[in-house]
Amino acid sequence: MSKRTLHLNVNVISAGAHPAAWRLPEANPRAFFDPAHYANIAKIAEAGLFDTAFMADNSYLHPEGYPNSGLDPIVTLSAMAAATSRIGLVGSYSTTFHHPYGIARSFASLDHLSGGRMGWNVVTSRNKPEGLNYGFTDLPDRETRYARAAEAVEVVTALWDSWKPGALVLDTTSGVAVDRGLIKPIDFVGEHYSVAGPLQLPPSPQGRPLITQAGGSEGGVDLAARFADAVFTSALFIEPARESYRKLKEAVARYGRSPESIAVMPGINPVVGSTEEEARRRIAEHNEIVTPVGNPIERFAKWVGVDPDGLDPDRPFPLELLKSTGDTYSSVGFDTATRLYLERNQHRTVRELAADGRQGHRNLVGSAEQIADDLEEWFRTGAADGFVIQFDTLPGGLELFIEHVVPLLQKKGIFRREYGENTLRERFGVPYPRE
């Protein structure tokens, strides 16, 4: 059995996760609609031996600030695939807005284009402006969205598997291109979809794309346990992260799958400096560049789900403002983690909390040694199999991490020194699940 190693994934958020990233002197302000920018990030991450470059998605123009998402992920991942040869590429595509046959065909096409390096991040979408763009006056409730998602994944994987081994013949002498007896319709009829199949494409070099999932709700955990090869999570503290990690692995086992067949990867926001003080100065300098509608306190209030006018910047956050109704007070849907974060930071003022720029994922601001030690602790003590990393600026934050943190992780023996696998499934240790 090969040695367990850390999975590192860059979340490609145009110019960077910090709201001022696009305004910095070294930034590309056109990043959100510049395919060359995304291709360059993928090349840099590949040089740093990252497992994947990941693209989130939404289908509407944000009403404020810099529009971090613009290009369609399918089109953008094609450009990223053409610019690289080893790094995995994962893109979000919604089961609420997209039909499973189109999803299956698009990601199978990308998997062929990339030589078996593609992953599909299954999302259900819950933003009303997105729904309006797809004709939903009201989006389906959470239970319905996840039921629809589970059915969609069943359809997509059945389509990917509809060509059996040996179906692709390509015998130019006999004139037989395919053995149609080995290409079977799926004839799926469910509550939400009716799909005949088969897919018009043979399996890619890795059989089927990797399946990832993000979402901490009960429905999201169940969807991940049934289908996902990797799951993106939000975890602000190590103790509850270990508990969530254990529960997800147990849920996977209840579906008859090996707990080792799924990688749990919390999101983190690292800022690297030669010292912690230098890293904090970097964030402070970014925070000084305040957009007209996106100052840190307003963004913090939006994340927590409260009126910024009700906050005194120089006093601790008033916990009585929180409501424990699911997504009500957390724009990212992780209300338990939000409350725990605020409770543990009652000694800090709202202004200090807002300066963290926290948006549902853990900030790591410090020296390369501090950050590497932190990642090692989470990895070795059952809190994470890897991380999805949001950098304050791109490509600058990514380059600093690769230059200073990656060598330390390699010295600790928990991160690769070269790519040893050809496909993304091989890298995550999840072989193609043939019948």
TrEMBL record:
Cite the binding residues for FMN. Answer: D57, Y146, S217
InterPro entries linked = Diverse_substr_monoxygenases, Luciferase-like_dom, Luciferase-like_sf, NTA_MOA
**Which ranges carry the Luciferase-like domain?**
26-383
| Keyword terms of this UniProt record | Flavoprotein, FMN, Monooxygenase, Oxidoreductase
GO MF annotation, one: monooxygenase activity
List the Pfam families hit by this protein, alphabetically: Bac_luciferase
Asked if the Swiss-Prot or TrEMBL record annotates the protein with the keyword Glycosyltransferase, the reply is: no
CDD domains the record matches = Nitrilotriacetate_monoxgenase
Q: Does the keyword Oxidoreductase apply?
A: yes
* Family affiliation: Belongs to the NtaA/SnaA/DszA monooxygenase family.
Q: Please report the name of this protein according to its UniProt entry.
A: Monooxygenase
